[in-house]
Amino acid sequence: MMDRLEQLKQFIGKEFTQSPSPFMKWLNPVILSAEEGQLEFQYIIRQEWLNPVGNLHGGITAAIIDDIIGATMYSLNEGSFMTTINNVIDYFSAAKENDIIVAETKIIKRGKQFVNAQCEIWNADKTRLIARGTSNLFKINN
């Protein structure tokens, strides 16, 4: 069976249609890069992702951060499932419908039971930081 990281790498430049997560399929990311513990996904902001003033909704931003950090844990090919304990998000700037945004992750600390991971969301050319989130995750042995 193909390892999870190799599965992600097969979709570089394409929509990740093979996600085991129905929610990720709804977000519909394009994978830009995939390394162990480090992913870069691209999204196009859809109309239903907006708040009443026409900006990317903070809850969708949080959902993207939570979802791609989950995929980052998936890329580690571990036998245990990682559950999110908390998310802390700082919002820096707005994004609009049809904007392309890029989310990139990295692992800050990888312990035996806990992992601390970060996600930054940028505009398409990475000149403007939209949000940064950090999560603590806990290993659940299946």
Q: What's the pLDDT, averaged over the residues?
A: 95
N-to-C SSE series? HHEEHEEEE
Percent helix range: 10-25%
Strand order of the largest sheet: 1-2-4-5-6-3
Cα-based radius of gyration, to the nearest Å: 15 Å
Keywords, separated by commas or semicolons:
3 helices; 6 strands; globular; six-stranded antiparallel sheet
Description of the molecule:
The chain is α+β, with helices and mostly antiparallel strands and 142 residues long. A six-stranded antiparallel sheet has the order 1-2-4-5-6-3.
Secondary structure elements and their pairing?
Blueprint: H1 4-9, H2 22-27, E1 30-35, E2 38-44, H3 58-74, E3 81-91, E4 100-110, E5 114-123, E6 129-140
Structure, briefly:
The protein is of the alpha+beta class. The protein has helices spanning 4-9, 22-27, 58-74, and strands at residues 30-35, 38-44, 81-91, 100-110, 114-123, 129-140. The chain is globular and about 45 Å long.
